[in-house]
């Protein structure tokens, strides 16, 4: 049986808008999403969909069809520590917190998917798992969810996800094959010298000068040691040290971020950051402490999974509305943890509408979406799952 999932999703558009606006009014930060997860569980319970709690405030639900294949669909739930400056009926009611990245829409779309696929579960030749992930904006709940076994019982074979995109017109989607998002490694370097009077630098070991040499040398890792055809970024974003113009301090702390598109480049840049820093500091008689954090990995779209989304999207919105993206994003996305475990694909759902004034960037105080994107997102997710399980 062929299903017109867009028509079905349009029939519940009013409900989707109401749900999304409720979430938008009540944003919660990572691992604080108690109200949000409560609403999700209440919705699932009303449909008779089994679920379990995971990663503290996360939820994993399963719709059991007839068959052994299982597809997972993921949505993130958390908001950002940002003041909502929109003037609308559904703006945030929580001071200093806002859904400025569209996770309210993602959660709403997944609930819409749950409602529709659960209503036809007897037609599904397998299972659908629903992952409601907390804390995507911070440490990523996906990693904890995976450690807690959400990909098992039943075993997940494929995972899909989406993100609203303010640079793509509503009614369209963007799909990137291969690498979609960068890996992230925040770092902190503490450089220790010997304090002295600014007029007698020979009496000390200047950590400010050492830090200056380190910062310049680190830039050459990217510009001179990686292929110029492969994107990578090493940014020093903060420098702290010293108390007065005429005092050489004991130590300086610098911190920054590494973003890479390939796993091998990620390992190489971390290794070279340590070698370069230690080499410069020791040659200048200082000492250093280096801390490189392991944040989100690269997000890779599996070719087969991406082709499945491409096919489903063309069924729902037509060939001309599916945009194949050429460039990856240097931003990070915790869906990458899922993509490291199972064949996965992630795409961008257009939510821009200049005529409605919906043009503002994500992570900004005026961010909003054209809610016409909600049923489109629901329909494409449903179609992809339906096709895969057939």
Automatic annotation (TrEMBL):
Occurrences of domain Peptidase M20 dimerisation (ranges): 187-275
InterPro entries: Amidohydrolase (IPR017439), Bact_exopeptidase_dim_dom (IPR036264), Peptidase_M20 (IPR002933), Peptidase_M20_dimer (IPR011650)
Superkingdom of origin organism: Bacteria
One Pfam entry name: Peptidase_M20
Protein name as annotated: M20 family metallopeptidase
Source species taxonomy: Bacteria, Bacillati, Bacillota, Clostridia, Eubacteriales
């Amino acid at each position: 049986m062929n299903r017109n999932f867009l028509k079905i999703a349009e029939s519940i558009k009013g409900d989707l808008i109401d749900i999304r606006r409720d979430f938008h009014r009540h944003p919660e930060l990572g691992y604080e999403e108690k109200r949000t997860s409560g609403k999700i569980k209440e919705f699932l319970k009303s449909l008779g969909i089994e679920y379990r709690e995971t990663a503290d405030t996360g939820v994993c639900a399963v719709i059991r069809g007839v068959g052994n294949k299982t597809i997972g669909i993921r949505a993130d739930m958390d908001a950002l520590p940002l003041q909502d400056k929109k003037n609308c009926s559904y703006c945030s009611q929580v001071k200093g917190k806002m859904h400025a990245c569209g996770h309210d829409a993602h959660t709403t779309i997944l609930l819409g998917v749950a409602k529709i696929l659960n209503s036809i579960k007897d037609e599904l030749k397998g299972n659908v798992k629903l992952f409601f992930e907390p804390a995507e904006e911070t440490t990523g709940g996906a990693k904890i969810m995976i450690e807690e076994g959400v990909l098992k019982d039943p075993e997940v074979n494929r995972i899909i996800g989406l993100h609203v995109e303010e640079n793509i017109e509503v009614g369209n989607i963007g799909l990137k094959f291969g690498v979609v998002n960068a890996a992230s490694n925040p770092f902190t370097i503490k450089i220790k010298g010997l304090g002295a009077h600014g007029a007698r630098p020979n009496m000390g070991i200047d950590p400010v000068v050492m830090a200056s040499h380190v910062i310049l040398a680190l830039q050459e890792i990217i510009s001179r040691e990686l292929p110029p055809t492969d994107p990578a970024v090493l940014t020093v974003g903060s420098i702290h040290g010293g108390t007065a113009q005429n005092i050489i301090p004991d130590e300086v702390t610098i911190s920054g971020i590494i973003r890479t598109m390939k796993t091998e480049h990620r390992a190489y840049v971390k290794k070279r950051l340590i070698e370069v820093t230690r080499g410069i500091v020791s040659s200048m008689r200082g000492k250093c402490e280096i801390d490189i954090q392991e944040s989100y990995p690269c997000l890779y779209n599996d070719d087969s999974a991406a082709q499945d989304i491409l096919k489903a999207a063309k069924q729902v919105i037509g060939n001309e509305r599916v945009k194949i993206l050429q460039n990856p994003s240097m931003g990070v996305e915790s869906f990458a943890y899922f993509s490291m475990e199972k064949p996965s694909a992630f795409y961008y759902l257009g939510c821009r509408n200049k005529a409605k004034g919906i043009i503002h960037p994500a992570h900004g105080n005026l961010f909003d979406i054209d809610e016409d994107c909600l049923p489109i997102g629901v329909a494409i997710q449903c179609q992809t799952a339906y096709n895969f399980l057939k």
